[in-house]
Pentatricopeptide repeat-containing protein (Vigna angularis var. angularis), 106 residues
Amino acid sequence: MPERNVVTWNAMISGYLRNGDTRSASLVFEEMQGKTQVTWSQIRCGFVRNGDIVTARRLFDEVLRELKDVLIWTVMVDGYARIGEMEAVRFRIVWCSLCEKCNWQC
């Protein structure tokens, strides 16, 4: 691909994830420079939808503090809810609301 930008990188990651190819999505994600909130949410959501909450959580922990917003938190809440981890959901909702009150600097 002659011109690579955040849109083309995100499109590649999304395509791999939609087809269940988390390995290729991870390789593209790791190679990508300038990851955005959309990129971080997309990769984690893809792992959640492919049943890998452990990797999604690891990626959540890697997200820069200043990029954690309601979308980033919502993907984790959704992931834990999908696998029936309601205690984790409850914890994330409380933590998310606390972070919202302090401008996402938690």
